Each structure stands twice: as C-alpha cells, then as structure tokens.
Amino acid sequence: MIILSPIAINPSALAAAFSQDLAEAGAIATFTGLVRRDGEKSVEALFLDHAPGLTELAIEAALGDAGIRWPLLKVLVAHRIGQVDAGEPVVFVATAASHRRAAFEACDFLMDFLKTDAPFWKKQISRSGNEWIEPRAEDYTDRNRWR
Amino acid sequence: MIKIVFYGPLADIMGRERMINDFTGSVGALIDRLCEGNEDLKSAVSRARVKIAVNDRIVSPDAIVKSGDDVAVLPPFSGG
Predict the structure, then answer these.
(1) Is the pLDDT of residue B46 over 90?
(2) Does any CB of chain B come closer than 8 Å to the CB of residue A114?
(3) Chain B partners within 8 Å of A32 (Cβ)
(4) Which of B11, B53, B77 is nearest residue A118 as measured by Cβ atoms?
(5) A31, A59, B10, B15: which has the fewest Cβ within 10 Å?
(6) Chain B residues within 8 A of A120 when measuring between CB atoms
(7) DSSP chain A
(8) In chain A, which residues have pLDDT < 50?
C-alpha cells in the first residue's frame, strides 16, 4: 500500500492499522524518518515535490521488487508531500513477514530506494535560505548494496 | 503540441509547465531546444543527472517525442 500525504503522518496510528489482520506474521518492522532540525543550518522545514503518477508507479515497482526478494505478507510506504516542518515525520515504512530478517531487510531496502530512486525532490527551508537537497554519496552506496 | 513538466529545482527555473508546438525529434534535441537562450536551465541540466519521462515512462535521450506526448524533466531524486 502507498500513501502520499499532504497532511501529517501519524506513525503510531499507521503502525496500529498495519498490524491488523496479520495472523500469519512473525515479524513487523517499521521505520519513521523525521525532518532533522540540523542545528547549524536551523532547518525550519522541508518542501517535498513529487511527480503525480510517476512517483506512485516507481514505488509500486519497488514494492513488487521487494516482494520478489523477500516473502512479505504486507508492505506500507507512507510519504509526505508539500511542506513538512522540522521534527515531523516525512516517511513511514512498514513490512510484515513470517521471520524478522525478511521484515528488517525489506524495510531497509525500501528506504534506500526512496532516498535515491523515487521521484521526490526535497527543498530545505532554513533561516539561512532555501536549498534543494540531493542525495549524499552514502545514499547511493546504500542503494547499491541491493544491486 | 508537447507538454513539458519540470520538477524540483528545475521548476524553480522554468515554472511547472511549458507547451511546445511544432516539434518532433529526440528527447535530447528537445532539451537542447529548451536550453537555447536559457543559461540557468543549461547549467542545471548539464550539472545534474537529469532523467526524462515520456508519458510516465523513463526513456533514453534518443527516444522520439511527438505532438500529444507529456514529457517530464526529472532532476536527481531525493526522497525519504
């Protein structure tokens, strides 16, 4: 399941809903990514741009890929769009499987995908000015672990 | 007519959408045409690993675009 939301993500509520109807599951992994305040820059918010249609298609493809790599019972990707204030969740990923390793790894895989291969663009809004953020070299290295 | 949509930092330079008439050719040639007289776009496109989608599919620079196509110009992705 994919949620692209212009309103606040509530990780607790999403996790509670996700865990319903999972009688076969032995493991659920969740990840919540927050907008870092980044002390030096005094980040006030991120603005998330996306490409409607294309973004959903790319995430769908990644969910399909994850389902081939690991025996998953259920997957959720929730991602904010628009302005997200510092301290707020920007992304939430949940994976369910029979065993923990599949749940952990699929969650990790999907986050690496979202960082570098999903059509989103982040503008950092801070007191010192606004700046579009590109993935760090480490993000590409992390993504390449799965190739 | 071809609709061209820009995202992320490129939307700051070009606005969200442009329409182009009377063009049939490769994606690469289309980008070159858009860059004519626009040093900001030229610089951004050459610096970044820009991808192009035609009708919601990522294509290579030699793919042909024609009237009625929707083209998306996609700078490096940065989500999560």
Answers:
(1) no
(2) yes
(3) none
(4) B77
(5) B15
(6) 77-80
(7) -EEEESS---HHHHHHHHTTT-TT-SEEEEEEEE----TTTTEEEEEEEE-TTHHHHHHHHHHHHHHHHS-EEEEEEEEE-EEEETTSEEEEEEEEESSHHHHHHHHHHHHHHHHHTSSEEEEEEETTEEEEE---HHHHHHHHTT-
(8) none
